[in-house]
Structures are given as structure tokens and as C-alpha cells.
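Weekly sync, protein design subgroup
Attendees: M.S., D.O., the rotation student, P.L. (late)

Item 1: inverse folding check
M.S. brought a backbone from last month's batch and wanted to see whether the design step gives back something sensible before we order anything. D.O. pointed out we never logged the input encoding, so this time it goes straight into the notes. C-alpha cells as presented (151 positions):
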């Protein structure tokens, strides 16, 4: 028998996934309306072909899947941006944001700053403890640098 915590945890993810799927279906309808209005505004057809409507809805509704190519691409770009922020440190300017992420630039900048602060804090607090351990693991006995702090 599984512990009650696992059942509750699994239920949480199922509810979260169901909410995400529902939100994506609603988003697909909204995007479809906006695209239809834009096409009409440019003198195009009053209604998109059914095949195009289904394709657009399907592409948006499939974003919940972890292996979705669009989700993977956006995730890779966000992670790349956050890595670049960490490499720049707290004192340096934020790296250039990939153009496709421009719509969420404020949120990413806020997230990157908070993430950078957490990493800096962890380095400051735990760096002296882990530096000797990492030195032993990463460098052969004769090559380890002297000193205890890796900051």
C-alpha cells in the first residue's frame, strides 16, 4: 500500500495538469479569435479553413506535454538566459534576452534576479563547506589548489 502522501502528491499533479490543459484550450480559442480578426482586418477570409483552425488549436493545446518541441525550445531559451544571468553575477548587467521571450521579459528579469540572489547566498553560506569536498573530487591529490574558499 502506498503512503497517503504519494496519493495526495499524485492528485496534485493530476489536478495541475488538468488545469493546464483547460487553460491551454481556452488560450487556443482566444488565439484563434485574434488570428481570425487579424486575417479579416487584412482583407482575408472571414473564417479560417477548418483544417487551419484545428491545427492552431492542436498546437496550443499540446503545449502541456513535456516533450512538446515548442515547450522544449522555450524552456531551453529561458534556461540559457538564466545561466547567462548567473555567469554575469549580481553586479553586471542582465544579458540580452532572446527576442521570442520579449513578452515575458519583465517576469524573466525578476526571476533571474531572484535566482541569482539565491545562488549567491548559497555560495556565500555553503561554499566554504563544499569547496574542500569539491576540490578532492575534481582534482587529483597533487593538483588541488590551496585555501578553503572557492568564491
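Designed sequence read out in the meeting:
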Amino acid at each position: 500500500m502506498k503512503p497517503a502522501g504519494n496519493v495526495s502528491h499524485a492528485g496534485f499533479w493530476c489536478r495541475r495538469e488538468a488545469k493546464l490543459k483547460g487553460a491551454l484550450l481556452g488560450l487556443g480559442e482566444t488565439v484563434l479569435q485574434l488570428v481570425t480578426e487579424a486575417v479579416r482586418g487584412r482583407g482575408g477570409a472571414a473564417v479560417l479553413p477548418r483544417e487551419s483552425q484545428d491545427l492552431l488549436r492542436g498546437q496550443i493545446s499540446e503545449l502541456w506535454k513535456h516533450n512538446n518541441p515548442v515547450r522544449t525550445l522555450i524552456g531551453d531559451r529561458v534556461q540559457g538566459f538564466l545561466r547567462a544571468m548567473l555567469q554575469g553575477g549580481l553586479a553586471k548587467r542582465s544579458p540580452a534576452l532572446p527576442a521570442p521571450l520579449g513578452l515575458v521579459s519583465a517576469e524573466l528579469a525578476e526571476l533571474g534576479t531572484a535566482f541569482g540572489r539565491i545562488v549567491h547566498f548559497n555560495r556565500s553560506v555553503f561554499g566554504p563547506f563544499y569547496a574542500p569536498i569539491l576540490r578532492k573530487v575534481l582534482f587529483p591529490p597533487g593538483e588541488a589548489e590551496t585555501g578553503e574558499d572557492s568564491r
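Discussion: DSSP finds four helices and no strands in the chain. The helical segments are 4-41, 50-61, 69-88, 105-138.
Action: P.L. to compare against the previous round before Friday.
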